[in-house]
Amino acid sequence: MDAYDEDSREPQAPDGPPGTRLPEQPPRPVPPPAATSEPRTAAPTSGPRTAAPTSGPRTAAPTPASDPHTPVSASEPIAGVAASGAGTRTGQSAPRPRTGVAALSPGYQVVAALALAVVAVAAGVHLLMVFLSLAPSNTVTKQHGKAIEDWVYPEFEQNWKLFAPNPLQQNIAVQVRAEVRTRDGGLLTTGWTDLSAQDGAAIDGNPAPSHTQQNELRRAWDFFAATHGADNRAIGLRGSLSEQYLRRIVVMRLYRSDPASRDGVIRRVQVRSSTTNVQPPPWSRERVSDKPVYRLLPWWSVTSDEAAGGVR
């Protein structure tokens, strides 16, 4: 028999006769191939390779985009993030835009800071003046009383009548009539216009009435009554100021609400007050008169600047 026969290809024992087989030994582990820079080529096969049979249809392996448990490689772009360098980095939010004073340029920031400082100083001075006008007599009010009165009166005057032991129990209405120069040159005397009733109608049903509707006319009349005697003559230097203040208000109201005054030019005005007692409740035994009491002021001439539309 030839040594290269098919049967002699099997391993034989070194000392045994030909054909004797070695005992079976466990297969030796194959070491992993060493990494080389040369490309690996497939081992030659003796025939065409066929795919191993499977028991069912083959399914494609999940891709990183479809499998939520598959980690995404750092080299792959993330959806929603631009691949170019203009986009923001992953994990960092875009900076918030500046608002308010910080959004202005440095020059405008300086101007805004100065404006805020001026407003703050003016508000502080105003509060200080109002406090000094209500405070008891002291060294500051004795030395600068005239400056305090010029600042506060008449627009910012304060009083404590709401907390007085005997609060007001009368309704006071301010009424006015005017002498008007018509367009044809004649003179017309209007009827009495109840300005307080107009303010009351504007306040009724209004959840947020304006300060002028509530206090402008009322405080003007209180200012006039406090600086004039029963004969309607001024007491002190503030008397002429109260007359001018009240006259400007009534002329402005007539130009707005009275058609005859609006079509002509007001030459003179006359103001009166109508005082009516507040009636006591039905269970009270007190009885007061319900008839109005009038206080009639003299006619006041209207200056040219007031009649020409400066207060319209």
Structure description:
- The chain has 312 residues and is α+β, with helices and mostly antiparallel strands.
- Helices cover 32% and strands 12% of the residues.
- The protein has helices at residues 106-134, 139-152, 195-203, 211-226, 238-257, 259-263, 304-310; strands spanning 170-181, 187-189, 193-194, 265-277, 293-296, 300-301.
- Strands 1, 2, 3, 4, 5 and 6 form a 6-stranded antiparallel beta sheet that branches.
- The longest helix is centred in the middle third of the chain and has 29 residues, at 106-134.
Number of strands: 6
Q: What portion of the residues fall into strands of 2 or more residues?
A: 5-15%
Query: What's the SSE pattern?
Result: HHEEEHHHHEEEH
Structural class, judged by helices and strands? Answer: alpha+beta
- Stretches with pLDDT under 50, minimum 5 residues: 79-87
Give the proportion of residues in helices. 25-40%
Mean pLDDT: 76
Largest sheet: 6 strands, antiparallel
How many angstroms does the end-to-end distance come to?
Answer: 140 Å
Radius of gyration: 52 Å
Q: How many helix segments? A: 7
CA-based shape: elongated
